[in-house]
Amino acid sequence: MRPREHGYVNDAMAPFLDSIGNIFNLTLFGEDFVGWIDHWEDKVSDTSIAQIFTNEPEHVKAMLSTDFANFVKGHSNHEKIFSLLGEGVFNVDGEMWKFHRNMTRPYFSRERITHFELFARHSDSAIAKLLSQPDAVDFQDLVSKFTLDSASEFLFGINVRSLEQPLPLPHVKETERNTFSAAFTSVQAQAVVQGRFGGRRRTETLIDHLVKLTDDEKLIKDESFNIMVAGRDTTASTLTFACYMLATNPHVLSKLRAEILDHVGTSSYPTLDSFRDMKYLRAVINEILRLYPPVPLNQRECVSPTVFKSGGKHYFIPAGAAVIYSVLFMHTRKDLWGDDAETFDPERWLDDRYKKYVLPNPFISYLSMLGPAS
C-alpha cells in the first residue's frame, strides 16, 4: 500500500521484475525488442496459444483489410480492457462491431469534421496557456488537455475546461474536477439535460445522435467514451511528437512555418481548401505518424485457419492464434523505406522516394491500410 499512498504505484512491481530476469527488458522504440524477437522467434514454439509476430505489410493488410472478418480483437483483449472501454466500438467484434459502427458513423459527416473554427478556438486557448507560463511547460499535458476540451465540445457540446485546471501535485489526492472520469460523467449528464430540456446548444451532438437510436444508458456511455478516447489520445500523441520533431529539426520548422504563413497568414484560421494546398504540412504529419504511430503495437486473434503470403512464402495461421503486429517496426524497415528509414525527413513524401517505395506498395504505411475499421 505504501507505493500507492506515497509514490509511484508501479514501484511495487520492481522486486517482481528483478526476480524474473530480463524478459521484460523490451524497449519498444529501440532495438532491444527487435533483437529479442530475432533471438527467440526460432527457438520458442511450444506454447499453449500460438503467438505470431509480424511486421510484413501483406500480413497486416490481410488482418486490417482484405481478411478483416477473420481477425478479431478476441476474448482475451476484450477482457483486458473491458473495465475501460466496456462494450464500445473498439472492444467488440462481429455483428456487435457492425452495429456500433453503423450507429456512430453517420454522425461524422464531412460538414462536422471540417468544423475548424471550434478547434482553432481551443488552440488559441492552449497557446494562451502556454504563453502565460514563465517556466518550462509539460507540452504533452498541455495538448492532452487541449484535445480533451476540443473533443468534449465537438462530441457533446460541452467544454470540460481541463486547460483551466493545474497539473496535479505529487502525493496529493486528486480533486474530483481534475479526474478524467469525473469530467466525462459530468459532460455526459450536462449534454443529456441540455438535449432534453433545451439550452444554448444549437447543433446536434453525439449524445443527441445516440439517444435517437437507443435508450440503453450503458451502450451510450460506452460508445461515447470510446469515441472520446480515440479522438483525444491519437491527436494528443501526434501533436506531442510533432512538437518534439519540429524542435529538434529547425529546418523543417522553418519550411513548415513559411508554408503556413503563405496559405493562412497570421490573422485567420485554416480552411479545408488551405489544408489541401499545404503539401508540406501533410508530409510532416505523415512522417510523424510513420515514426511515431499512436498505436505502435497491436494484436488480433485468428478465427478460422488461414495462410499468410509474402515474399513467395506461405505461413499457416491456425485458428485461435494471437497475431501481434507492429506498424512501428514496419515503418522503419530499410528494405521498405530505404537506408534512411529511421531518419525523420518529410521530404520522402514529396520526392522520388515516394514514387520508389510508397506508390508501388502503399501498404507499407498503415495510413493506407485502415480498412473497414476506419
UniProtKB/TrEMBL annotation:
Family according to the record: Belongs to the cytochrome P450 family.
Cofactors named for this entry: heme
Transmembrane segments: none
GO MF: heme binding; iron ion binding; monooxygenase activity; oxidoreductase activity, acting on paired donors, with incorporation or reduction of molecular oxygen
Keyword annotations of the record: Heme, Iron, Metal-binding, Monooxygenase, Oxidoreductase
Top-rank taxon, per record: Eukaryota
Protein name (database record): Cytochrome P450
